[in-house]
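[09:14] KT: can someone run the structure on this one? pasting the chain below
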Amino acid sequence: MARRRGPTTGKRTLGRELRRLREAVELSVETAAAELDCSPAKIRHIENGRNVVKKAELSVLVRLYKADEDLAVLDEIRRDASKPGWWSTAKLPPSMNTYVGAESDATSMSTFQMELVPGLLQTEGYIRQLNRTSQAKDVDHYVEVRLRRQQRLFDKEFPLAVHAICSEAVIHRMATMPVAKAQLQHLILMSERPNVTIQIVPFSAGMHASPAGSFVLLDFDPEISLPVAFFEYTNIGQFVDDEKVVDEVASTFAKLGEEAMTPDDSIRFLRERI
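[09:31] RB: done, structure tokens below
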């Protein structure tokens, strides 16, 4: 059974298809905008997956693109894209709002982290430690959102498969011993789940394959979306769905997996540090 498409991947898929149809008939963004009586920016936002097109607007565009036979399928995607996800009221930064939406639709995640424990594997104490300089009400909000996201790991119908590769630096970036011990124990416990794989790249491995930083790769049911890569900076996130770039990131992840200790050795390594 295919996982149902959510609003984030729905908007991205619909936008990509509308752009493909427009380019197939060699029409400009300006021509499409004139037909909808809107700005070219609105068409670009629709095609980039930032905004969802209305039903009447979809009908106009499909007719303009001479693709009436695709209307039923595209309208089904539009309906999926129009339904708000739980994160829509979570008051997240725009880039994280998009990321959490994509994460909720993904079938698997491959992530490399240089400094921090992957978000879906963090304990509440670790989350609070990371946000200790924020106001208490904001910290509570961060914890609530992060723990809600972690529920995907325990979903009985569609559990998210996570393969996390971490630099050894991650286990040395914990402020207090109680937090560090609880977090390491949690990683060991989570590694026992069939949908979670954890590997550590030790300092002894030397320069690893991703010195530029951390990243996340999200895979989806083929009927829903193509794979995407996500790079997070300070309060800014960047999605990349260019096939060549995503393939390069996937290749980097594979190299990191070869440089890292095996999953069994990685867990033994964590146990020795409790």
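[09:33] KT: thanks! Residues 8 and 101 are 5 Å apart (CA to CA).
[09:34] RB: yep, looked fine to me
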